[in-house]
Amino acid sequence: MDIAFLYETFVTLISAIPLTLQLAATSVALGAVLALGLAVCRLSGIWPLDWFARGYIFIFRGTPLLVQIFLIYYGLGQFREVRRSAFWFILRDPYWCAIIALMLCTAAYSAEIIRGGLQAVPHGQIEAARACGMSRFMVFRRIILPLAIRQALPAYSNEIISMVKATSLASIITIMEVTGVAAKIISETYRAIEVFVVAGAIYLAINFILTRVVALIEYRLSPHLRQAPALPAVAAGEMR
Amino acid sequence: MTFLKTLAAGTFAAMALASAASAQEKTEITIATEGAFPPYNLTKPDGTLDGYDVELAHYLCDHMKIKCTIVAQAFDGMIPALNAGKFDAIMAGMSATEKRKEVIDFSMSYGSTGQAFAVLKDTDLSKMPLKDALYSLSSNEEGARKAVEELKPLLKGKVIGVQTASIASRFIDEYLKDTVEKREYKTTEQHDLDLLSGRVDVIMASMGYLKTAVEKPTNDEMEIVGPRFQGGFLGAGSSVGLRKSDTALKAKFDEAITAAKADGTLKTLSMKWFGFDLTPQ
């Protein structure tokens, strides 16, 4: 392996990291909002909403993200009606097409994760909150949602990580994120192994930091699962 | 030992003499083509070879007063076969690239499609000036620069689609870097789609490719405009491939191609087979 070339490749690829992070962060954030809406629809008990959410999840989970990106970018652009519509200024831009595709896809997966988290909230806790006189919305905001997030977090961290990696698919619609730049370097130098090793290491580093952050959040949200620190005797006495 | 040395020296001298003699007095050569790369070369239903390469080969041989036999041969493996002496020349739409030049020699170019622009019909770019003009980056670099300057006002701020790491992409980097926004695609079909949808305003690709692309029924809104560029890093175009040792034959081919250029044969043949002029500038 040629260390100088690896270093040079690394320096070039670093400049593409902000775009990769931006794609992942924006689509995960927007996708989470959409996913919450879908999960609520699924659990609403109102059948048109429930079936809409089921259909949505079925389609977006059942088709490859690559195909979705192609359909949104090249597919929609073929219709004159779309090109003349008010949405074209968004769909014209490859960046926003990538965000939309990633967002729609992650929302489908996350909706099921959030639904699982919501359904795992112990019924007794909800009853207790209702008994305290909280309104339905307040119960949701104060009791159900925080507990659901805590329970869904391990599964959701999987989804965030796979989204970071999924941003690499955006390179096929001319977006020069890490994989896009890597592919460009390869077609100029024909040195696939070195370049992809560096690109892979960059994704690994991003995801390492990400898993640490999620682990920290999980720790903060689960004080009830840790052994309580022993209260000093004096303090305990004062409390009495 | 002395005997062996003499023998070796003798053999070497004989070989050198033989090759020198054959190079000077070749009256019969075999030319290989592919027969499956229209319009450069193709095999007709009756099995005979035809195409731009083949017709030009006949002309060149007549001019050189050499008797030629043209044979069909698979494109990959053509270069090793040439060096192994299976035939004496290659005319198969083969571009004289640096990599191939390491192994074999090339005559001067007998056809260059060049790089051209395509846009949507009835847009402001469809009135691009210098239509069909041809500029060489090697022999007329100044002219090419002037042509680019003339295009700049029209191209200012436009989005141009090219294939990743292609010579068109390099052309944009070197001549139009601050004028246009470059977007790179994996395949040429993809930038065609984005031209049709209006995401890019103009594309740049090989004229040979664009010519077939605009004839596809789905691309009827696309048209080729403006000047073409060739030479320099854009490549010298198709040339006759020859063994490095056959310098005399190379000189003969060069002379014959110059004649074909001068008397308009290259133009006539390329108009017949391609519909535009391939004559290298």
Automatic annotation (TrEMBL), chain A:
State the compartments where it is located: Cell inner membrane; Cell membrane
Q: What residues form the membrane-spanning segments? A: 20-43, 55-74, 86-109, 166-186, 192-217
In alphabetical order, the GO MF annotations are: transmembrane transporter activity
Family annotation (PROSITE patterns) = ABC_TM1
GO CC annotations? Answer: ATP-binding cassette (ABC) transporter complex
**Known InterPro entries for this protein?**
AA_ABC_transptr_permease_3TM, ArtM/GltK/GlnP/TcyL/YhdX-like, MetI-like, MetI-like_sf
Membrane-related topology note: Multi-pass membrane protein
What the record says about family reads: Belongs to the binding-protein-dependent transport system permease family. HisMQ subfamily.
Q: What is this protein called?
A: ABC transporter permease subunit
Its source organism is Endobacterium cereale
Automatic annotation (TrEMBL), chain B:
Q: Which residue ranges traverse the bilayer?
A: none
Q: Where in the cell is it found?
A: Periplasm
**Per the record's keyword annotation, is Signal included, yes or no?**
yes
Sorted alphabetically, the keyword list is: Signal
Which positions fall inside the Solute-binding protein family 3/N-terminal domain? 28-277
Signal peptide positions (record)? 1-23
Q: Does the keyword Magnesium feature in the UniProt annotation?
A: no
Q: Which domain of life is it from?
A: Bacteria
The record's section on InterPro entries has: SBP_3_CS, Solute-binding_3/MltF_N
GO cellular component, alphabetical, reads: periplasmic space
Concerning Pfam families, the annotation shows: SBP_bac_3
The similarity comment for this entry is: Belongs to the bacterial solute-binding protein 3 family.
Q: What is this protein called?
A: Transporter substrate-binding domain-containing protein
Q: Which organism is it from?
A: Endobacterium cereale
Starting at the broadest rank, the lineage of the source organism is: Bacteria, Pseudomonadati, Pseudomonadota, Alphaproteobacteria, Hyphomicrobiales
